[in-house]
Structure formats: structure tokens, C-alpha cells
Design the sequence.
């Protein structure tokens, strides 16, 4: 593949996608060819991981380059078959410039067990993102899947797809990865608590209100799903 036409921005984003994909593989947030990662260029095109690739071992020239309809715009590889969830995320969230779709095991397990990650339990999560809504099940690789996230992605930077995986968006790839890291860390805590006591109880409403009231002083300005009642 001819890389001479890459801009400095494109080169940087391609390397960042490879780095984040490798981090997710190393942290067991994906396995095999699971997951897909993307970033938007300043020209409005999208760089995204290719179909069927081992995401932990990507090189910059492996990354696909597509337009906002999912069509390849250079002689590079074919993009992920789940490109639709990326296109929907960028369509509904003009502020989002990067997206991570992974298969974090504890978070997926909670959806299978019927445990709601939107439940207000962990103070740090309550103050920052609020909670993690669950999108209904959609069959991967079909046009139905992107539509399952459309309503929730409008009001949340993080979500978990029933029986499937997570979606996190942000102004850049590191921010989207940070939210994925937070999501799975929260899921591990909830899983251990559920196993230890046989159930989960949310914090009292007055405690949740006090935590949300600290957001302004802490400089938290992003979407918060407990404030906007996303997915409720």
C-alpha cells in the first residue's frame, strides 16, 4: 500500500488506532479478531480497523479509510463488518471523533446475568459518566445492530450491547479508551460484589444527588446518564 499520500494527521491517527487496539488486546478487552476501533479525520473521513484482522497486531497500513457511508476511499483494506455502529455513532454525536467497540468480558457477563450497569453504585462513575446503559440485543453483522445503539448513543458516551460488547465514544481515541477501561473496571467490581453477596443495591437517592452536585466543582462537563436519565 502506498503511504506517501498520508497526511501527518492520518499517520498519527492510524498509529493511535493500532496502539489502542493493542492495549485492548493486552488487557483482555478483546480476543482474536474481536472488536473494532475508529477515528475521524478533520476532513470528515473515517479511519477504522479492517475486517477479520487480529486487532492486537495491527500496523498503520492495515487500517481502512472510508467515507461517511462506509465506502472505501483508497486502495486499502475492507473495513470492519460492524462499521454500521461507528457510522451511527458519528451521525448521532457530531462531537465524537473516536470510537472503541470491544468485548469486555465482565461487562458482557453482566448483561447476560441481567445486572443493570446504570445502577448508581460506584461514586467515581456516578460523578463522571453517571452509569452505563444497556442497548437491546442486535445480531452482529446485520443492519439491525447499529439501530440498537442509536437512541442511547445520543445521550451517553458509554453503553453495553446485550450479550455482545461495549461502545465508547470521545473527542479522541485515548478518551474513548479511558471510558472503556472505566466500564470494564466497574463491571468487575459489580460482578465481585454480586458474587459475594448475591445481589446489588444502589446507593440511596440522597447520596447520588450529593455526588452529582460535586460535578461542577470538579469540572465535570461531559454527558452524565444519571442527570439526563439516558436509557432509563
Sequence:
Amino acid at each position: 500500500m502506498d503511504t506517501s499520500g498520508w497526511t501527518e494527521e492520518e499517520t498519527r491517527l492510524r498509529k493511535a488506532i493500532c496502539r489502542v487496539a493493542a492495549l485492548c488486546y493486552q488487557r483482555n478487552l478483546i480476543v482474536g479478531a474481536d472488536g473494532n476501533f475508529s477515528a475521524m479525520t478533520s476532513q470528515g473521513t473515517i479511519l477504522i480497523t479492517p475486517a477479520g484482522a487480529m486487532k492486537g497486531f495491527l500496523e498503520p497500513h492495515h487500517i481502512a479509510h472510508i467515507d461517511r457511508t462506509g465506502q472505501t476511499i483508497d486502495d486499502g483494506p475492507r473495513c470492519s463488518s460492524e462499521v454500521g455502529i461507528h457510522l451511527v455513532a458519528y451521525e448521532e454525536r457530531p462531537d465524537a471523533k473516536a470510537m472503541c467497540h470491544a468485548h469486555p468480558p465482565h461487562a458482557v457477563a453482566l448483561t447476560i446475568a441481567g445486572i443493570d450497569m446504570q445502577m448508581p453504585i460506584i461514586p467515581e462513575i456516578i460523578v463522571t459518566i453517571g452509569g452505563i446503559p444497556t442497548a437491546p440485543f442486535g445480531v452482529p453483522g446485520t443492519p439491525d445492530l447499529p439501530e440498537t445503539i442509536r437512541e442511547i448513543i445520543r445521550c451517553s458516551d458509554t453503553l453495553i450491547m446485550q450479550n455482545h460488547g461495549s461502545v465508547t465514544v470521545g473527542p479522541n481515541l485515548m478518551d474513548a479508551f479511558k471510558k472503556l477501561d472505566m466500564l470494564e473496571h466497574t463491571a468487575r467490581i459489580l460482578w465481585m460484589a454480586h458474587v459475594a453477596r448475591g445481589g446489588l443495591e444502589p446507593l440511596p437517592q440522597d447520596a447520588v444527588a450529593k455526588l452529582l452536585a460535586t460535578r461542577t466543582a470538579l469540572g465535570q462537563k461531559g454527558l452524565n446518564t444519571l442527570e439526563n436519565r439516558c436509557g432509563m
